[in-house]
Design goal:
The complex is a heterodimer of chains A (472) and B (232). Chain A is of the alpha+beta class and 472 residues long. In chain A, 49% of the residues lie in helices and 19% in strands. In chain A, a hairpin with a 2-residue loop joins strand 5 (106-114) and strand 6 (117-129). The two termini of chain A are 79 Å apart. In chain B, helix 2 crosses helix 3. Chain B is globular, with a radius of gyration of 17 Å. Classes of the chains: A alpha+beta (472), B alpha/beta (232). Strand 1 of chain A pairs antiparallel with strand 1 of chain B.
């Protein structure tokens, strides 16, 4: 906008928009109101908007008289002239003014205001003023019949000026209230739409930002997994040499060793293998993360796999004074699974059960077939209930300990990567915090379920459910 | 943004009352409505919920004809104070020619004042404006309550800041018209500098002010009815 421009309207809020009479009224229902209003006093009226367009035209008791005069060419010409005069006449101020028609009838004209602006006018009439002396209309022509005219004139409602004033004032007030309500309605609904639009735009913007940062995070996560895979691979190579050469030394390939040397090298080898285990865990995890883990499923006897896992942790259990009970149901079916990976899962769970147990504690391992209602199976598959079998068959491997247990509010987080219930336990018990994350991923990869139940101070039970696939 | 229509000889200004929730913006407008001449102001449109919280905005138009024959209209809006109505606030603030910031004098609500001010600055920015570019006054309302910031403190604030500061107890009608006059004068001066209104419209500042603030002959002390507990 420049100061020089003659008319400056600037793009601004709907709140500054001005409305016309027709926009603020529901014309259809407004006309009905006008009809009934005209019926009340038998006086018709017209309503024009700001641009002099006729919005409402209701007839009253003067209609027949006017129609009679309108038949005559001179009457028609005069009537038309009167109507345009009434329509165009300046109304000074807020008050109503009067217009005397050539017929002797009268009109009252009142502006209709909205927010201080005259946005239309009410032309009330024609009516018969109380003090009328009927004019001579014989100039309308030979066919003009003054008898008919005066009979029709007698039908026109006669009314005193002060009554007209009251009626017109009441009518304009009513119209102004209707306009105000329409205005309020129009403003609020537009305002609502604008506010919603503004919020929507804002949300779109925020969503876009979130999407972008999510993409960035995903990319970073991928880089992290790649990095872990590369690093753990690179770490393993020299470590295998360390372990290999230690083993060679222990076997006496470089000559016989003193007891002290043997002990030291034994420690080097043990710690090396521990380190290798950790690195392998990280490698597995990063493979799972990058989706490069491949299962190699073969018919697997889970009882045997479990027994082998138990024997792996047995030395550690003995060292800590923890007893392991093993129960296997002989009806446990053979299923298709990657036996190495299942073994890894079980060694991990058993290792935890031993590690987090109390001294003289107990670990119970149960392998058995079970049936479950179908709906609980296959997490992540969105199937209608009708398509899910009523029951599904699983092999359940449950590992229960008598350890410290897991607080209820932590239960759903223990399968997260790098999470240990108590950060300080990492130092006390060792480990990367990846074990359960890997475990869950491996179980997921088999289409299985891993569940945990725990009572603080009494112990935890981890249950792995592997589906029994019926031979197709 | 002011709308100047030289053909129709009409100018429309927009004043917005901004401020934290329940600081008394609507009350300010109610007082103005009661005090002004009914012939020169429109109906007060209050859109609120049952608990006195503005829903969209309040609106009161004021209008008068200048001696030179120009129609001057001032539309006074309030914004909803609740945090969640931010987009509504932004839309109402759009195109404001002047802003009266209604702050709550209570010490405990200083933070709410500050947050609302920042929110306003941010919304102005999103409308492409800086706080420094727009005429602005600050009203410290609710002077009648206890635990309010002291007069000295407010005088000090007024000396330091560039925005004129007014004290008010809107519920008793005190300081309300002064605040409105303050923001009207600043707004007029700012628009006059930009658009040379005085020459174009043949209206001086004082005619503008007395035209807008024409008092009702009947109005005494305004009475705003409020239930006590609703003030919190």
């Amino acid at each position: 906008m420049t100061p020089a421009s003659p008319s400056s309207t600037v793009d601004s809020s709907v709140l500054q928009k001005s409305f016309s009479l027709g926009e603020l009224l529901d014309l259809e229902s407004f006309r009905e109101v006008c009809e009934s209003y005209a019926g009340l006093f038998q006086i018709g009226f017209k309503i024009f908007d700001q641009s002099k367009e006729l919005l409402v035209d209701v007839k009253g008791s003067g209609a027949d008289f006017c129609a009679y005069l309108f038949q005559f060419p001179e009457g028609k010409a005069r009537c038309t002239k009167e109507v345009s005069a009434i329509r165009d006449q300046e109304i000074p101020g807020r008050d109503l003014s009067y217009h005397n028609c050539f017929t002797g009838l009268q009109y009252a004209i009142a502006p209709i205001f909205h927010e201080g602006d005259a946005i239309g006018r009410l032309v009330y009439g024609p009516y018969l003023p109380a003090d009328l002396s009927p004019p001579d209309l014989s100039y309308l022509g030979e066919r003009f019949n003054s008898g008919i005219a005066s009979r029709l004139l007698g039908n026109v409602r006669k009314v005193k000026t002060d009554v007209v004033l009251k009626v017109v004032r009441h009518l304009t007030q009513t119209i102004e209230v209707m306009l105000y309500i329409g205005y309020k309605h129009a403003l609020t609904s537009r305002m609502h739409v604008e506010a919603v639009t503004a919020s929507y735009t804002e949300l779109q913007h925020k969503n876009q930002e979130l999407r972008e940062s999510f993409e960035r995070l995903k990319e970073l996560d991928r880089l992290k997994s790649n990095f872990l895979a590369t690093v753990s691979h690179e770490l393993r190579t020299p470590l295998t040499s360390v372990i290999g050469y230690s083993e060679m030394l222990l076997e006496g390939l470089a000559g016989s060793l003193t007891d002290e040397q043997r002990e030291y090298i034994g420690t080097i080898m043990e710690k090396g293998e521990q380190l290798l285990g950790l690195i392998s865990g990280i490698l597995d995890f990063s493979k799972i993360e990058t989706g490069t883990l491949r299962l190699n499923p073969t018919p697997t006897n889970l009882v045997e796999v479990t027994r082998s896992a138990v024997s792996t942790v047995m030395p550690q259990a003995r060292k800590l004074g923890v007893n392991i009970d093993f129960f296997a149901d002989q009806n446990t079916p053979t299923i298709n699974a990657d036996s190495d990976k299942i073994r890894q899962v079980l060694v991990n769970l058993l290792g935890n059960a031993v590690k987090f147990n109390r001294k003289d504690g107990k670990v119970s391992v149960r392998v058995e077939p079970i049936s479950r209602p179908g709906q609980s199976a296959r997490v992540g598959e969105d199937l209608p209930a009708a398509l899910v079998p009523a029951t599904e068959e699983f092999v359940s491997i449950a590992v229960a300990d008598t350890g410290v247990g897991i607080p209820g509010d932590k239960l759903d987080r223990i399968f997260d990567s790098f999470y240990q219930v108590d950060g300080s336990s990492t130092r006390e018990y060792g480990g990367t915090g990846l074990g359960l994350a890997i475990t869950r991923n491996l179980v997921d990869a088999h289409g299985g379920i891993i569940e945990v139940a725990s009572e603080q101070g009494k112990g935890s039970t981890f249950t792995v459910l592997l589906p029994v696939e019926k031979a197709a | 943004m002011v709308q100047i229509n030289l053909e129709q000889r009409e100018i429309t200004l927009k004043i917005v009352y901004y401020g934290p929730a329940l600081s008394g913006k609507t009350t300010n407008l109610q007082v103005v409505h009661q005090l002004l001449d009914p012939d020169s102001r429109g109906r007060l449109m209050v859109l609120d919920t049952s608990d006195d919280r503005t829903l969209f905005f309040d609106l009161m138009p004021v209008f008068f004809k200048t001696r030179s024959g120009f129609t001057v209209k001032v539309k006074i809006f309030t914004v909803p104070g609740q945090v969640m109505h931010n987009s509504t606030r932004r839309v109402v603030l759009q195109g404001a020619d002047g802003v009266a910031f209604v702050a709550d004098s209570q010490k405990s609500l200083s933070k709410a004042n500050n947050e609302s001010w920042r929110d306003m600055a941010n919304n102005l920015k999103m409308n492409g404006l800086e706080v420094s570019e727009i005429p602005m006054v600050i009203q410290f309302n609710k002077r009648d309550l206890s635990e309010v910031r002291s007069d000295e403190e407010i005088a000090e604030v007024g000396r330091k800041g560039k925005e004129p500061v007014y004290k008010a107890t809107a519920i008793k009608g005190e300081g309300v018209m002064e605040t409105l006059e303050g923001i009207l004068r600043l707004t007029w001066r700012s628009l006059n500098n930009k658009y040379n209104l005085e020459e174009k419209l043949q209206v001086r500042e004082n005619e503008f002010i007395s035209g807008v603030l024409k008092r009702s002959a009947r109005a005494g002390t305004p009475i705003i009815h409020r239930e006590e507990e609703d003030l919190r």
